[in-house]
Amino acid sequence: MAAVKASAASNTVILALADELAAGTIEATPTKSDLELGVQTLADALARQANPFPDASPAQVRHPLTAGDTDETWWPWLMGLVVGRVAPGEWDVVVIDDRLVEGLDAGGNPVYPVCRRAAEAIRPR
């Protein structure tokens, strides 16, 4: 059941990211005026200050490759997608690395782990 929930969360994040990226494609940008682009840029900068890791944003996250690796200082930086902010200074992140696949969902898609990390263990991409 947990694997299904994690898969659904990662699929939702990935689809939201795809929708967000489509809005900023080269085809969509020329339809905005300079004023609209300037306002959007300022609004995005303010939002990043309030939440440096918005939902569905790509990130790198420190995560162990094996369950027995407890020394966080040696954990590698792996690709991930931010699921959401769960507490002040903490985010849930889907770790997207084929070495960590936990199984397959009903559709045959890989299920990746979701971890909770503080800002120090996350880097924006």
Automatic annotation (TrEMBL):
<protein>
    <submittedName>
        <fullName>Uncharacterized protein</fullName>
    </submittedName>
</protein>
